[in-house]
Amino acid sequence: MQIQNVRNFAIIAHIDHGKSTLADRIMEQTQTVSDRESQAQLLDDLAVEQAHGVTVKSRTVRNYYTADDGQEYEYNFIDTPGHVDFTYEVSKSLAASDGALLLVDATQGVQAQTVANLRLAQDNHLTVIPVINKIDAAAADVERTAEQIRSLSPDFADVTMLKISAKTGLNVHDVLEAIHTTIPAPTGSLKQPLKALVFDSQYDAFKGIIAYVRLMDGQLKPNDKLKLMATDQPVMANEIGIFTPQRVAAKQLVAGDVGYVVTGLKDPQALRVGDTLTSVANPTATALPGYQPSQSMVFAGFYPQGDHYHDLQLAVEKLALNDASFHYRPESSDALGAGFRCGFLGIFHLQIIRERLHDEYGLDVLTTAPNVTYRVHVKNGDDPLIVDNPIKFPDYSKIDYVEEPLATATITTTSESLSDVMKLATQHKGELQDMRNQGDLVVLEYQLPFAEIAYDFFNALKSVSHGYATLTTELAGYDIADVVKVEVHVNYARVDALSFVVHREDAPLMAQELVHKLKFVIPRKLNPMPVQSVVEGKALARVDVPPLRKNAAANGEKRSTSKKQALLRRQSMNKRQSAHSDIELPQEVFNAVLDLE
Ligand code: GDP
Ligand code: MG
């Protein structure tokens, strides 16, 4: 295929606006897949994607399209995720593309991620084709959506709006034509040395690391000797090929192509997404700019159940290879032993990684309560300590002051739900910065502690707005916060992995709530066990986990309460030394911390 006839583009949109459906229609209308295959959505094949009905991983597919001008074009498209937690995945896909289809659902109009993804595309200098989708739906307001799109960017002022139904296929042909007439062909040269962007990767049990590449210059054949430029890591092109969407081996890849390279590397850490692949014999002079590493916003500990530390290590290494926004490093806790401190872009991301560990690696991990990163300034210290694990939060006597991360949250909602949404944001310590109308919708901008939105804010927002509100968040720096560490003591021994950090004003209520939940989920022992939440050395709340079977205290109905407590305490004192190590911590115990309001 001549490079002039190649087009590389991404499909971007707000979640649920129809990217994967349009991707399916494109594959169907270019006969990339048979009609039988196209019965079901082809691209969202991860179990987590089917379970949640969302795209988590970008997918690449090569299609051949015979256009109305009689020429055949090669269309490489990348279907991208829409959820705000996967923006990093989108930005990688855009760096491998020359253009983007920006889909907007005509029943919902322009939404937060529409704007965010358009910005990403413009930052990558892509040609953007706006497409109005779902025009078949009864609730579609095509004209209003067209107006909203026009107001997004001067580039859209006088484009002809494509109006389609990805579901029925109506006018999808117009999209196929617009791609080759509007999006530029790649500009690379076959004669230059090989320069290929590694925009994604995957670990295959048999073949090792497979790099997904976009060739900017040069060409690539099987058995070529290559190297990764950031690390000088040598790589053999054991096999090269394209995505149809399955991997299909090919004899050559040339400038402008999107495809894969089976590298033969077995160590999952040997390759970094964003690196440049070039040839050993004739290397390119400069590497591609690559990506900024993603910044984790939420952290949690992952611990193996039973004797599976090594399995968990291999699994997180391989997942990190496939998801460059997932970070991990070893950590250990007295209560749980060896595990990993993991960093995520948000709580939904955390949930997806847990499910992928289960689905793809058969591992159920114990997950500690998520937290954000604090900057702790200790007395007489120079630089602040960066604390992303509550276990490492210094003793209160040593702390001068603490800073916590703030978020700017942009919420788009309907005027009907406005007051409930504002109430929710205020409950989460949000301060209103800006409020404006966007068509019939209201756009609110709040500044609030990142920890407040890191947990269930998104779900609460969906619920108070009956599903209409949308949210994007951005880190807005750090600010001083009066936060304290809440420790949990079981049988007078601190269980380090249950510690968490909260605003001081919220601590008493959360401490109460937590011990009452723990009462029912901490496995019972022969003796009653006190469970306490402790803040700055003082117990704020206490309950007793009842013993397994009846004992002196349990049938001492006639005893006074204080005597009963004294007895309970004596009983547990006897077990104190051994108490700490023999408390089992099932996942429900951590969920109790997670579910606190
Ligand atoms: P994505 O999150 O952007 O990949 O969205 P999907 O392609 O998964 O589509 C989300 C939902 O919208 C699915 O239930 C689709 O069946 C539906 N959908 C997609 N395109 C259309 C369309 O043109 N018309 C209608 N009525 N529904 C559509
Ligand atoms: Mg999708």
From TrEMBL:
<dbReference type="InterPro" id="IPR013842">
    <property type="entry name" value="LepA_CTD"/>
</dbReference>
<feature type="binding site">
    <location>
        <begin position="133"/>
        <end position="136"/>
    </location>
    <ligand>
        <name>GTP</name>
    </ligand>
</feature>
<dbReference type="InterPro" id="IPR035654">
    <property type="entry name" value="LepA_IV"/>
</dbReference>
<dbReference type="GO" id="GO:0003746">
    <property type="term" value="F:translation elongation factor activity"/>
</dbReference>
<protein>
    <recommendedName>
        <fullName>Elongation factor 4</fullName>
        <ecNumber>3.6.5.n1</ecNumber>
    </recommendedName>
</protein>
<keyword id="KW-0547">Nucleotide-binding</keyword>
<dbReference type="Pfam" id="PF00679">
    <property type="entry name" value="EFG_C"/>
</dbReference>
<comment type="similarity">
    <text>Belongs to the TRAFAC class translation factor GTPase superfamily. Classic translation factor GTPase family. LepA subfamily.</text>
</comment>
<dbReference type="InterPro" id="IPR004161">
    <property type="entry name" value="EFTu-like_2"/>
</dbReference>
<dbReference type="GO" id="GO:0016787">
    <property type="term" value="F:hydrolase activity"/>
</dbReference>
<feature type="region of interest" description="Disordered">
    <location>
        <begin position="550"/>
        <end position="581"/>
    </location>
</feature>
<keyword id="KW-0472">Membrane</keyword>
<keyword id="KW-0648">Protein biosynthesis</keyword>
<keyword id="KW-0342">GTP-binding</keyword>
<keyword id="KW-0251">Elongation factor</keyword>
<dbReference type="InterPro" id="IPR006297">
    <property type="entry name" value="EF-4"/>
</dbReference>
<dbReference type="Pfam" id="PF06421">
    <property type="entry name" value="LepA_C"/>
</dbReference>
<dbReference type="InterPro" id="IPR038363">
    <property type="entry name" value="LepA_C_sf"/>
</dbReference>
<dbReference type="InterPro" id="IPR005225">
    <property type="entry name" value="Small_GTP-bd"/>
</dbReference>
<feature type="domain" description="Tr-type G">
    <location>
        <begin position="4"/>
        <end position="187"/>
    </location>
</feature>
<dbReference type="InterPro" id="IPR035647">
    <property type="entry name" value="EFG_III/V"/>
</dbReference>
<dbReference type="InterPro" id="IPR000640">
    <property type="entry name" value="EFG_V-like"/>
</dbReference>
<keyword id="KW-0378">Hydrolase</keyword>
<dbReference type="InterPro" id="IPR009000">
    <property type="entry name" value="Transl_B-barrel_sf"/>
</dbReference>
<dbReference type="Pfam" id="PF00009">
    <property type="entry name" value="GTP_EFTU"/>
</dbReference>
<dbReference type="Pfam" id="PF03144">
    <property type="entry name" value="GTP_EFTU_D2"/>
</dbReference>
<dbReference type="InterPro" id="IPR027417">
    <property type="entry name" value="P-loop_NTPase"/>
</dbReference>
<comment type="function">
    <text>Required for accurate and efficient protein synthesis under certain stress conditions. May act as a fidelity factor of the translation reaction, by catalyzing a one-codon backward translocation of tRNAs on improperly translocated ribosomes. Back-translocation proceeds from a post-translocation (POST) complex to a pre-translocation (PRE) complex, thus giving elongation factor G a second chance to translocate the tRNAs correctly. Binds to ribosomes in a GTP-dependent manner.</text>
</comment>
<keyword id="KW-1003">Cell membrane</keyword>
<feature type="binding site">
    <location>
        <begin position="16"/>
        <end position="21"/>
    </location>
    <ligand>
        <name>GTP</name>
    </ligand>
</feature>
<dbReference type="InterPro" id="IPR000795">
    <property type="entry name" value="T_Tr_GTP-bd_dom"/>
</dbReference>
